[in-house]
TrEMBL record:
Name of this chain's protein: Helicase C-terminal domain-containing protein
Domain Helicase C-terminal, first and last residues per copy: 61-217
PANTHER family: ATP-DEPENDENT HELICASE HRQ1
GO cellular component, one term: nucleus
GO terms, biological process: interstrand cross-link repair; nucleotide-excision repair
SMART domains linked to this entry: HELICc (SM00490)
Taxonomic placement: unclassified sequences, metagenomes, ecological metagenomes
UniProt cross-references to Gene3D superfamilies, sorted A to Z: P-loop containing nucleotide triphosphate hydrolases
Matches recorded under SUPFAM superfamilies: P-loop containing nucleoside triphosphate hydrolases
Amino acid sequence: PQFICCSATITNPGEHAERLVGLPFEVVDNDGSPHGGKDFVFWNPPVMDKAKSVRRSANSEATNLFTELVSRDIRTLTFARTRRLTELIYIYSRRRLAEVSPGRSKQIKPYRAGYLPQERRQIEQEFFGGQLLGVVATNALELGIDVGDLEATVLAGYPGSIASTWQQAGRSGRSQGESLSFLIALDNPLDQYFMRHPDFFFQKSFENALVNPTNPYILRAHLLCAAWECPLNNDDEEIFGSALTRERE
């Protein structure tokens, strides 16, 4: 068989693919994708209590930015850290849009795991087709789904890795036009460090992708899937390694 593996945000694509598949790979790393300029804004919420050094909620800031962008007809995708926060930012944004720009309050929707597949496909199609101006999502929309040409992304908190940050921010600006991305800091040491040292963030390379094909907990599930497709025999040790014999026993 021939394998073609694609990724834009890992540092070790060749090594990772070879460990995953068990065959030598040729790395093609020339970026030929269309993209215009991007303004990347580090947005630190204002201090609300100087005595306690408490800042305004990143989710409130995300709501404000999201509604401001949508009210200006800027197609925007906002990422929240959890399903609950996704729904809350959506609810607050819809209420605010109903006050400042009523016609647009029905042009935003939430997107997260837990919806029925047909509901998710409908939201994807409406966003891709331009019927929706904005979507609030978990990382379920971070990769793997074409959402069309977006002009702005809002990240409510550092996603946890450099790769995820660029994946989410990179959802906007996939054409030749200018785009905008906001990283809104949470009130925690890591997010605040990035706000004080943005150069550290931009100088960091993407994390290495890690895979351990002999991990017994992962291998066991893969063996069950493989056995469902075709009965396993001793010859399959060439594919799964000596761990196959141990797991079968």
